[in-house]
Amino acid sequence: MNRKSKINFISKRIQSPTKTLRFALGLGLIFLVVYFFFNTPTASIFAVETTGQEFKIVTTPESGLFRVPNMAPGDKVSAPLAVKNMGQRDFCYDVTARLDSGDKLYTILELIIKDGNGKIRYLGKLKDLQNIALGILAAGNSESYEFTISFPFECGNDYQGKMTSMTFIFNATEHPQTLDGGIVWDPPLEKPDVTVRKGIVMPIKFHILNNGVLDKEKRGVDLVITGNDSSGLPVVYKFSVVDGTLDWEEHGLSNPHYSVMFDTSIYPVAPDTFYNAKVKYGDQILGTTEFKSGH
After folding, report:
1. CATH tag, 183-293
2. For the chain, which residues score pLDDT lower than 50?
3. pLDDT recorded at residue 12
4. Where are the domains of the chain?
5. Whole-Å CA distances, 191 to 39, 79, 99, 159, 290
């Protein structure tokens, strides 16, 4: 069972209502964040309310995440957001942007999400932020992010006086149960239509299935990704437990997993190209999956 939580961020020319964060029971843990109204001389504030028992998530800060001045083309605003798992179970989570009103401005705003290590987790149009996996959060652990919204300089004054209202949706779920041979892929690779974009970092996490049970012992496995590089030439990217390029993450996790942050600025991808991800243990292939690169 999942919960929904909501942070509303509102900023207008005359007033700046309070934002609300709500948690409720539902089909998935939904964490709704941030309403925007641009061209305002005042700042916005947060208020947080929580209900529900299945997942216990808190955010830091609880108020004043964004303080938005009168935005003009070329301006940008940044704010940190920390998410913590206060419950007793691990969960996977992703983020999506939802338009509530004001589509003209919404379509041109740009977004960068960076994790606590400064790695870019998303880079692109705000409207294109759809089901971007952020990883797995263990019970008692937290993750920090920086969200930056920018108003493209080339937009000029065409959008003067326009406003938009949108919501970030953080969707948290339990570990997927879909099995691929001897591998359980965590989000986003548990889905067949995953897309990674140039310049961002995609988490690749998986578990080994041993006799129908998730294996909690570290093995000397390899992750091999094949496809084309940014110039269109065939390429093989290999990550290994043996040389430390493939991590074994177990700190606080009830179900430890193998993990690599697939950074496309280091491992270039070609646009609109399919890539094969294969897990090997020696010469034995434990499981495979595919993902696609976007523009």
Report:
1. 2.60.40.1930
2. 1-53
3. 33
4. 2-173, 183-293
5. 39, 30, 24, 37, 9
